[in-house]
Amino acid sequence: MTAPSAVAHIGDVACSGFLFDMDGVVTATARVHERAWTRLFDGFLAERGKGEAPFSADDYLQYVDGRPRVDGVESFLASRSIEIPHGMASDPPTAHTVCGLAARKDEMFLHELDEHGVAAFSGTVTLIRRLREAHVAVALVTASRNAVRVLDAAGLTDLFDARVDGLDVDRLSLAGKPEPDTYLEAARRLGLEAGSCVVLEDALAGVEAGRRGRFAVVVGVDRTHHADALRDAGADVVVSDLSDLEVRFAAA
Ligand SMILES: O=P(O)(O)OC[C@H]1O[C@@H](O)[C@H](O)[C@@H](O)[C@@H]1O
To answer: Where are the annotated coiled coils located (predicted)?
Structure first.
């Protein structure tokens, strides 16, 4: 893409690119994912019949939120010292493998999506439109393989100058969040350095990715009262909605 022609300031920091996470930042789909994960793991733990503690909101934040689907399954199972075969990407939802559980979770997520549709956060959409009017570059960076479907359902497909999603993670063999690779790839596609971009994230793994990638600013979006955890993971600024983020516009 052509070089962006403007910067926007967060505090004293000039940012030429804004890199938005999707679920929980742009669209109200973080809770939809969490519900599907809870159904998946509670069913799985019950089937094991070992009286293990159910999947909790904290499990979601620590081990699953923001990570690619298969990484989420692996990370949660490791936290409980549960070992099952990895399996293959083509495994059906009934398979007792990591990939089978991931497929089962996707079925549950897509079912919820079809039933309830997708809502967008108006504070985020307004900010993106202001950035675009000011010719500041904007990208979407999500672990989700369902990004196009979710954006289409929310009517937001054409809002971004670049998109890096879960399909790119596989196609380009990128490490998922909390590694910074997907954010670095988005900055590269915008023709920018990490040091001139801001990362906007609600997931601990995503904030960590922003910190590890040495981005100019990491904004934590706290919709579930986990502001301290977002700061501990590396957020420079925490807001409860992006309508509260102070952004100043100035020509480059
Ligand atoms: O299963 P998908 O749509 O590929 O999404 C992968 C992950 O995407 C992240 O954005 C969500 O925070 C996770 O909950 C989700 O598991």
So the answer is: none
